[in-house]
UniProtKB/TrEMBL annotation:
CDD domains per record: GST_C_Beta, GST_N_Beta
Keywords recorded for this protein, A-Z: Transferase
Presence of the UniProt keyword tRNA processing in the record: no
Source taxonomy: Bacteria, Pseudomonadati, Pseudomonadota, Gammaproteobacteria, Enterobacterales
Domain GST N-terminal: 1-81
An MF annotation (GO) of this entry: transferase activity
Protein name: Glutathione transferase GstA
Domain of life: Bacteria
Presence of the UniProt keyword Nucleus in the record: no
GST C-terminal domain residues: 87-199
Length: 199
């Protein structure tokens, strides 16, 4: 498998999952500005949407969008603790979390990367984001993950999104449970290896 990534983007989530599951893969860095890969390819030829993540699962077959990539990777190691078997309520809850993270956090944070955003508009996005953080704060239990005692795909996605707070001068410590969740995942060897590889 080949993961197309750019540093400081959501492609870090599948990168971490690949390492957590010890799956064989190669990394291809994409320049977000030029839309060129490190070996000079036009990234639009790989993913016409023009953004990471993209996963080449076999010659010429590309999977895009973070949550489906995470679910595909989990399907390769269905008995791993990180994964939830399809069909049961735990799997439905996983889909619920991934949808929440993609639509409420990820989509809600993306506009904040626009430095030209007028301050009142920025504050509106931040207020909505803080409401979502408050929901997570009230949901997370000390020492646990989103779906209980075991680290899951949604936890890794949440970790990546919370990592973006540094770009917006948002202090995650305002939400102690969310802050602790972030640091517990940050300390994992697979996470540290992924961060090092993306430098």
């Amino acid at each position: 498998m080949k993961l197309y990534f750019a540093p400081d983007t959501c492609s870090l989530a599948p990168h971490i999952v690949l390492r957590e599951l010890a799956l064989p893969f190669t990394l291809v860095r994409v320049n977000n500005q030029s839309k060129k890969t490190e070996d000079g390819q036009d990234f639009y030829h790989i993913n016409p949407k023009g953004y990471v993540a993209a996963l080449e699962i076999d010659e010429g077959s590309i999977l895009t969008e973070g949550p489906p990539i995470l679910l595909y990777l989990a399907s390769l190691q269905p008995t791993a603790p990180l994964c939830v078997a399809p069909g049961g309520m735990d799997y439905i809850r996983l889909l619920e979390w991934l949808n929440f993270l993609a639509t409420e956090l990820h989509a809600g944070m993306a506009p904040l990367f626009n430095r030209a955003l007028p301050q009142p508009v920025r504050e509106g996005f931040e207020q909505r984001l803080f409401q979502r953080f408050a929901y997570l704060e009230n949901t997370l239990r000390p020492g646990l993950f989103l779906q209980g005692e075991t680290l899951g795909l949604a936890d890794i996605y949440l970790y990546v999104l919370c990592g973006w707070c540094k770009f917006f001068a948002i202090d995650l410590a305002q939400w102690p449970a969310l802050h602790a969740h972030y640091h517990r995942i940050h300390a994992r060897p697979a996470v540290q290896a992924a961060l090092l590889a993306e430098q």
